[in-house]
Write a structure and sequence with these properties.
alpha/beta, Enolase-like, domain 1, TIM Barrel, 2 domains, 13 helices
């Protein structure tokens, strides 16, 4: 049986959906040390962290998500989730906003991981892949691009990044993203080194994690124009809306941002005014409920949507389902692809927490959307337990 979750209330009342109730939420906070630290423009890290959300029901079915879980609002108001039907997923998403119940134009939602877990449950109950519940499935395979090329303790940053880039090219990667934000002179040097290492046929994006003010970004962006970049991600602070408008109008490469923002802020500040060329929400914050809203509004406003992804394979699976249900902006034969961020930096638990393997096909480089019910992946409880630093339970 398939149904649109927007019709959940009438269907439940009519007895068309199973009367299953949520009995608990478990928040698994994971942590693991790295064998070698890596860094970006803002910091260094010697560990990886993640949050998995597990939702249990009175039918014995369990849903999983990766990302934010509602925090203090859920702890103070467990009745917003416990005892309700998983098919109330969109209502629960809205009820967990800190501003829920107030007549504000823009609320904040911060339970993307919990939202994904509920969609996973709905798919499992109905024996249907999540992408089919989100609406129309536009594709079953998605084009990935590689995320790697962080700074490490190399004697020379440019030489180290160039050597790593050559390694990824040797594995067949055709698109990759590197970190910058180390100062304009260093940025030009390292981007030039990587571009020369991979050649002109490989697509290259850069991400500076909000390192610059708008004036510095304008000057640097003009210098980076010679490297034919697929986009520049977060050149300035996400809240600098006037600055982004100036950059998008002046720079030779597409400008991208939005990974830290909520659904409502993205809609009002980024999508409706067409502030940037590429919007990059993260499912840990916007969930699949927010993701579905963003997909339609990006299509309507002709703004390219490329979700940010930095988490476990559970988040990867949910992002792939979201992208399967995201329409292309144009029907052109060479339209920009719906691209998936494939993180390949070190993570002891990223792939270990599910039993399936998600990797590009050796034939064409595409990644298949998991095909089973719900998210289509099976969480490995022993791996979750091994890397869990803290468990929070809500009942």
């Amino acid at each position: 049986m398939k149904t649109d979750a927007l019709a959940e209330t009438s269907l439940i009342n009519a007895g068309a959906l199973p009367r299953i109730r949520i009995t608990g939420v478990k928040i698994h906070q994971l942590r693991a040390p790295l064998t070698r630290r890596f860094g970006w423009s803002l910091n260094w890290t010697d560990q990886r962290t993640a949050t998995l959300v597990e939702v249990t029901t009175d039918a014995g079915l369990t849903g999983w998500g990766d990302g934010n879980w509602g925090g203090e609002r859920l702890l103070q108001h467990p009745e917003l989730v416990i005892g309700r039907s998983p098919f109330e997923v969109e209502s629960i998403f809205d009820d967990l906003r800190p501003e829920a119940g107030h007549q504000t134009r823009v609320g904040e939602a911060s339970a993307g991981g919990l939202d994904v877990a509920l969609w996973d449950l709905c798919g499992k109950i109905l024996q249907t892949p999540v992408c089919d519940l989100l609406g129309r499935r536009y594709r079953s395979r998605v084009t990935p691009y590689l995320t790697a090329l962080y700074r490490q303790d190399w004697p020379d940053l440019a030489e180290g990044l160039a050597e790593e880039a050559r390694y990824w090219k040797s594995l067949g990667w055709r698109a990759m993203k590197m970190k910058i934000g180390y100062g304009p002179e260093t940025d030009v040097r390292v981007v030039r080194a990587v571009r020369e290492a991979i050649g002109s046929e490989i697509e290259l994006g850069v991400d500076s994690n909000c390192a610059y003010d708008v004036g510095t970004a304008l000057a640097l962006g003009r210098r980076l124009g010679e490297f034919n970049l697929m986009w520049w991600e977060e050149p300035i602070l996400a809240e600098d809306l006037t600055g982004y408008a100036r950059l998008a109008a002046a720079l030779p490469m597409p400008v991208a941002s939005g990974e830290t923002l909520t659904t409502d802020r993205l809609i009002v500040d980024y999508i409706q005014p067409r502030l940037v060329d590429i919007v990059q929400p993260d499912i840990e914050t916007v969930g699949l409920t927010g993701g579905r809203r963003l997909s339609y509004l990006c299509w309507l406003n002709h703004v390219r949507l490329i979700p940010h992804h930095w988490g476990t394979a559970v988040r990867a699976a949910s992002t792939l389902h979201w992208m399967a249900a995201t329409p292309a902006l144009t029907s052109g034969l060479h339209a920009p692809p719906i691209a998936f961020e494939f993180d390949q930096t070190e993570s002891p638990f990223r792939d270990a927490v599910i039993r399936q393997k998600m990797e590009p096909s050796p034939e064409d480089g595409l990644i298949a959307v998991p095909a089973g019910p719900g998210l289509g992946v099976d969480v490995e409880p022993l791996a979750v337990q091994e890397y869990r630093a803290r468990l929070i339970e809500v009942r």
